[in-house]
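Record type: ASSEMBLY
Status: queued
Input:
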Amino acid sequence: MTDYRKDFPLLSEIGENTVDGREWIYIDNAATSQRPQCVIDAERDFYLKHNANPLRGNYPLSVEATELYENARKGVRDFIGAKSAREIIFTRNTTESMNLVAYSYGLTNVKEGDEILVSIMEHHSNLLPWQMVARQTGAKLRFIECRPDGSLDLDQVREQITEKTKIVAITQVSNVLGRINPIKEIAAMAHEKNAIIVVDGAQSTPHMPVNVQELDADFFAFSGHKIFGPMGIGVLYGKKKLLKKMPPFLSGGEMIESVTRESAKYAELPHKFEAGTVNAAGAIALHAAIKYAQSVGFDVMQERELAVTKRAFDGLKELPHVHVLGSDRAEEHTGILTFTIDDVHPHDVSEILIADGICVRAGHHCAQPLLNYLGISSATRASFMFYNTEEEADQFVASIASIRERMGYGK
Amino acid sequence: MENRSFYNEILTEHNVRPEFKHDLPDADIVLEGVNPSCGDDIFLKLKTDGDTITDGAFVGDGCAISQASADIMLGMIVGKKKEEALQMGKIFMKMIKGDASEEEIDSLEEASALRDIAHMPARVKCAVLGWRTLKEALLGEDADDDDDEDDE
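Status: finished
Output:
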């Protein structure tokens, strides 16, 4: 079996990132993934060898920077199956992408009395922008609720999408439950009523092949840092016919065709939405990350990730005081196991795991409405990637098994 | 598994079997203290007679650190003058910032079980929730005037 861990310096080099001389077990991948050397090199190489402001100068260095940046856009286009590179807008992250859609599309297309439909499992980044649109336009925000196992009742969704619905905003994979939502089916229902669908792909793109045309998503957003890329680069895909009619989100440099004292004619797509100097190094490193994911292959990544997730899940199922949220099948978790332990607060769980050298996330996971709906205030989340090992899963389970006793609750 | 974590017996005892976590119907001061980012939420209840805290209790939810710290605090302040309680709170904050002397830490008795929080920035808010709420309860709006954990 190929040892992919050696591609990731932080996972393979015993350096400062150790606890008592042992490597940390990093299972907080849903928060951010680790980065392979090739991505770090790509970002560094840009500044070392190709640094110039893209899209501006006509000297060779700037042309080179432009070419690398635009190639990255094409790489993203192919990665998510978009029709045109002009439909790919580089942003900082999923949150910024969602805000772009909300401010630019939402505020101009949603009117008083309209409805915006979101799912109860949305990350705050795909909820708060729609709360803002609803507040400013007088539209009504409605929620698609899920079954206790995280699945959606599609008949109910069909009923909830009406003539009044203008926007359906939903995540492809829940960052708490790890469950995959049937985007294609929901997109068809939305389009039947002339609504558009905005898809949060932050948790799906790192784990599965995505094709926005097949899904028929109108907008699709993801973050570079969750799929081995750098922080500070994200993507918004939008159908060209929608993007063309939208006003700019931010205005300023390099998003214009001509400017007079009073007004401006905006640049063509995608530059209309990329005001100011762009994060070229980030986009180029994201391109390297995408190529890395493609070179490993989603089939290989999924097989390994599932084996490790299943191992951890099976271990947790043996523990009577531990309750995993969502489906009882590891296949329906996309590497994410969010759980509670009777009587032990999630922040204490994560603190004990830290003592054992294990990195997880505790809290509400920026999904407070979902946790409230499930009747809990916070939970602990372990999230696995293909580079995690079964030994790591075993150590994680052993740690969890010891927690109640260590917190003074006896055996 | 070896318990190398920070949770010592004093802490787990006060969390699992708290002495002061109950209602206090005849309290004359009741104040809620919340850590919005992690969800710790307590109601501190005090019964006072002039300058003396004659009884105290708390109810609420939160992590072991927030709950144990509040319980330890009440054990220290019940029966004391308000001034003394506030002084203990000052020393506790000093300890949490890593600025307290060994003598000062010793004077905190069981609360000194939380001294390692000084190396755990993410948990400071949990440890000081009870003490911060106490200060607000006793001083009201004046509580913000002198320096506390928020001014860094």
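Annotation: Chain A has 14 helices and 17 strands.
Annotation: The longest strand of chain A covers residues 165-171.
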